[in-house]
What does this fold into?
Amino acid sequence: MKRHGLNNVVELVGRPRPRAEEAHASRRARRIVAVGGGKGGIGKSLVSANLGIALARAGHRVTLVDADLGGANLHTCLGIAQPQGTLSDVVTRGARLETLAAPTGIENLSLVSGAMDALDAANPRAQARARLVEQLQTLDADYLVLDLGAGTSLHTIDFFLLADHGVLVLLPEPTSVENAYRFLKAALFRRLQQAAQALGVAHLAEAALGSQGSAMRTPGEVVKAVAEMQPDAAAQLDRSLREFRVKLVVNQVRSSADQSVGRAVVAAWKKFFGLDMDYLGAIAYDDAAWQTVRKRRALLIDAAASTAATDLVTVAQALAALDRPRTGR
Amino acid sequence: MTATEEPTLYDVLEVDPGSSVDELRAAVERARETYGPESLAVYALVDEVQLGELRAKLDEAASVLLDPARRATYDRSIGRLGPSTLWTEDEEEDPAPLPPVEPGPHAPETPLELEASGDEEGEEPRQEAFALELDDRSGPFARATPESEEPPAPAPLLSEDWAAAVPAEQQTPRASTQPEPAVETPAAPVETAGRGAAGETSGVPGEAEPAGRNEDPAAASSDAESPSERGRLPPSLGLRVKPGAVPASPAPEHEPSPEPAVAPGPAERAPEPPARPREGRSRLDIPADAEFNGELLRRVRESYGLSLQQVAERTRITRIHLENVEADRYDHLPATVYLRGILVNLARELRLDPARVSKTYLLAAQRAHGRAP
It folds into this structure.
């Protein structure tokens, strides 16, 4: 399959280039990006919205999905009214996701709202969740950007795991770093469980992990333990775990010390968990960010020249660059 | 060595084995920023034990790799020969080319007396100890140097002190405030107490804490209670030599009395001050001619109620090494020069005679290897 958009150099300042019709044959969102981070108020929605805008401006067809089921407000970040249909329509009455995507006023960018008004819907049952996931995976777009909610609930983790690019947002503050690591470890643990189950070695993985996932051993140790009994499965497990390659964004950076946090997190994660992480970049703390939110306008629209906006564009470029060298998956 | 699975010190610092000194320094600095106590990046990532182990390893890597001589020796021990590492094989037994390192097990036969003329040892007494050798090369750690004015706690470089600890320790030998040869290092309390007690009538040389640095024999000798209620260091048990086993001079003024081996080997920087306690006040009776093996070292450690972990934290010797030492797993221990450093540090921590411990232990290790002692 041809992959123009992804193979082109990302031009974020150029004119939007609408996609050719043939892409509809794709039947798959080419890249799913999930933006999470564990803690609330760290700028996940800001990053998601502006990442979406930057990618759309670069010519990609982007669908933003507000997957913060309990607290959806991505539409506010974009300065539009809440779309009529929301994810709850998928869950409750089997609506197609495509029909729910509302235009945002920005070329190539549409939005699916996540607002779940039904009390129950914010915590969809497994079956409904599976239907949602299936639709997300088959949505026709170049990029599907999921804005995840705070916390480490199961559906949040699962959204993060189904993404091609799990983007972790953190602030250079202990509380945020702590929650981000908790989120990461929960996601890794779930990934391990799922992979081990699929390979039929769940019992071995469990045993290797010991009683609790909280005192989690490194993936390498688990793989090694499994390898003693089932070398083949262990090799696959290893591969699966290595795909857990998180993309890091450090938001609200104020000092040069803050600047180094991203690299340090990447190094420390590798050191202790043996897994690679891609550092997409830092976003400067910038008054323009909260000011535009108050105005209910997107940063990249309303303050495109601000430092934070420039940083966000750089992050988007770094993300798109990850997809360039390879085709398909 | 069966070190193939173990990461090398280069791995620990995440540098290429061929790295220049500048690159190594940069790596040390990077490691400090990433894993040091002020780093956000390790906050809540893993538990303190894991972090402590990593920091100890990083310290070891820094102290070895930033010292050209030790680096060369280390390179050789991992089978890597560089331009600076063209030693001949037997030099492992005779580290003459490595002035800072202690003498080999072939050191003069009277290790206990060697220390006699301690006066010439104004500095650099303990070259072999890990993390004591960064000296002025310790650029990356310089930030913490100011703290070294403090009497360095003999203690334990717990995680929070990681960055500060190195310079504090390395600075110690040069502490100008303490001209006494007996107090150059964190382990000084041993000697201090020992010398003080030598003039006293009895009592355990206590006061092992930094307080022991103030040479108050009375205070020291009156102090014999349990380790637990004291600070982090147990009181000295005076685990030395039995009375009469050595031509001891009871009078402290005659410290340099035993002159027989005055000429310490070229590298014999006898770290221990004069007048080692010659009175047999040990609870654990260690004869003068004791041959130290892992079992004995373990018993001594346990007599202080110290866990391996505690000793590891204080001496910053990796726990694995300590376990291997106590189990006499010679094959798993590092090259002789490093092993000697480990033994000396351990001995100091356990209030034993470092020279005696390292000599006898190394001899046993060699015998186990089938080499002539």
